[in-house]
């Protein structure tokens, strides 16, 4: 869900979703997990 929000926010700011995916190495959700999460944990924002 967070990856989808990143794509939507990017589109609203004039950045193509494909560009965001490319910057994330192809998979935004995996990028977010690698960057902010730990294996076996769920990334959440309050």
Oligomer: single chain
Strand content: under 5%
What's the number of helices? Answer: 3
> Quick check: average pLDDT?
83
What share of the residues lie within helices? Answer: 55-70%
Give me the secondary-structure category.
mainly alpha
Low-confidence stretches: none
Strand elements, count: 0
Helices and strands, in order, run as HHH
- Tell me, what's the shape? globular
Can you summarize the main beta sheet? none
Rounded to an integer, what's the Rg over CA atoms? 11 Å
Q: Distance between the terminal alpha carbons, to the nearest Å?
A: 14 Å
Q: Any overview of this molecule?
A:
The structure is a single chain. The protein has 46 residues and is mainly α. Helix content is 59%, strand content 0%. The protein has helices spanning 2-12, 17-23, 28-36. The longest helix is centred in the first third of the chain and has 11 residues, at 2-12. The model has no long low-confidence stretch (mean pLDDT 83).
List its traits.
46 residues, 59% helix, single chain
Summarize the structure.
The chain has 46 residues and is an all-alpha fold. The protein has three helices and no strands. The radius of gyration is 11 Å and the shape is globular.
How are the secondary structure elements laid out?
Layout: H1 2-12, H2 17-23, H3 28-36
